Amino acid sequence: MSKAEIGLIGLGVMGANLALNIAEKGYPVAVFNRTASRTGTFFENAGDLRENVVPCATLEEFVAQIKPPRPIILMVQAGKAVDEQIEGLRDFLSAGDIIIDAGNANFRDTIRRFDELENSGLTFIGMGVSGGEEGARHGPSIMVGGEKQAYERVESVLKSIAAKFEGEPCCAWLGHGGAGHFVKTIHNGIEYADMQMIAEIYGILRDGFGMGAKDIGGIFAKWNEGRLNSYLVEITAAVLEADDPMSGDPIVDRILDRAGQKGTGRWSAIEAQMMGVPATAIESAVAARSISADRELRLLASKTYGSAPAPTNTKPDASVIQDLELALFAGKIAAYAQGFAVMDQASDEFQWNLPMPTIARIWRAGCIIRSQFLGTLARSFEADPDAENLLLINDFVSMMEEAHPALRRVVAQAALAGLPVPALSAALGYFDAFRQARSTANLIQAQRDYFGAHGFERIDEGGEHHGPWGSGAASA
Ligand SMILES: NC(=O)C1=CN([C@@H]2O[C@H](COP(=O)(O)OP(=O)(O)OC[C@H]3O[C@@H](n4cnc5c(N)ncnc54)[C@H](OP(=O)(O)O)[C@@H]3O)[C@@H](O)[C@H]2O)C=CC1
Ligand SMILES: O=C(CO)[C@H](O)[C@H](O)COP(=O)(O)O
């Protein structure tokens, strides 16, 4: 007899913890993993929760153990593995069963999978999950895309496993098709920008002032009590204060300076570019990881050009610390403005009607970018759901007015000292360009017309015009 209410495939970091979370909430869960030994180990370690876990060695057994109509969560590596897993399952499933891809899928793959499963009788859901290992175990933020009726069939289990913010589950249906995976992708793009800007401030304190990891950790810990209160700042403090058991040094000093990336940050930047929405802080964060990855080339370049000047080895005074805090805050506002602008455009292009206040609300707990800031963001979007850009919402105007002069000073000083701050300077450049009433694009238009006869608009007359370029110019 079928025992499980739900199934989960993929018992890696996320899947194993999500399965325990589901079991803990009282839902019997059937589990399967490609490598069977992992299923055995998982079950052995499930402790008291074993009574709600049904370990399965084959897909046939797995499907048979779930009560129809069967909701099945896939938590496997994104990409080919998802297609292979769906293909492997299809022979055993029946009409009405629901396949939920909970990995970090590219939303374009999700849209393709919806198309491929159309008329199959099966229901598909593309679901973004954020919160890492801890979130999966005790409450992630869950971003769902697909048919609303399909979501309603699994809503109670999803809401029960989701993080709660003041009692409200951080789980919502966000739109049809790839909406959930798109929002998760932009979440990660913002995560990249947040992390990179934090790393840049760390770099200023380490390489500009010569501060040690623990002292820098103390500064982040203090900031975590104020406007920068967030999971990423909190873990930054914890990471900087942790010792390496092998050497006794701060562990961060022993970690190779080469950042990995699995794709979501890059997809955010690509999609932003495809839609013509500036997401420069996110793009810079992705590029910074790529530059970091080629360490040999950096070492060669540092020999060729010399590194930045030696640290001053002076303790930064209170006004510098405050500037750094405000600069990070201003950068954060710009990065979120960009991320939400990308979602706004995608919402129109894919007709998702993305609910921005809901997105901000379900990011307040459980996910990696959770922060006090998102509470303000959620309240602001609720008051002004149609705001064209975060930077034009009253609360953010006041915050940015207070913070951007510090961002300017920090970027300027870092540039003079030769310290790289690509994401912070991209955020500043975006802000300055965004608020520039007369941009310099008049010159771009003139150049385009000169070499390509592309035409331009005039400020004093309608219609398309060409310039008086004379011989050598395309329009001459
Ligand atoms: N780690 C994180 O913080 C987060 C990860 N995610 C996403 O969740 C998904 C899972 O990530 P995570 O748990 O970290 O990854 P892990 O590497 O820990 O686990 C990967 C899982 O995928 C399975 N798998 C890999 N290839 C195949 C295949 N071809 N067919 C079937 N199963 C396969 C593995 O099975 P086997 O044991 O046989 O190798 C394993 O169960 C990814 O999409 C990831 O991007 C989302 C949010 C946060
Ligand atoms: O989705 C996540 C967090 O929200 C995953 O941890 C993801 O792997 C992070 O991206 P990357 O590996 O590219 O840093």
TrEMBL record:
It catalyses: 6-phospho-D-gluconate + NADP(+) = D-ribulose 5-phosphate + CO2 + NADPH. GO terms for molecular function: phosphogluconate dehydrogenase (decarboxylating) activity. Keywords: Gluconate utilization, NADP, Oxidoreductase, Pentose shunt. Pfam families: 6PGD, NAD_binding_2. NCBIfam families: gnd, PRK09287.1. Catalyzes the oxidative decarboxylation of 6-phosphogluconate to ribulose 5-phosphate and CO(2), with concomitant reduction of NADP to NADPH. Pathway: Carbohydrate degradation; pentose phosphate pathway; D-ribulose 5-phosphate from D-glucose 6-phosphate (oxidative stage): step 3/3. Its EC number is 1.1.1.44. Homodimer. PROSITE patterns: 6PGD (PS00461). This is 6-phosphogluconate dehydrogenase, decarboxylating. It comes from Aquamicrobium zhengzhouense. Belongs to the 6-phosphogluconate dehydrogenase family. Residues 180-470 form the 6-phosphogluconate dehydrogenase C-terminal domain. It is an enzyme of class 1 (oxidoreductase).
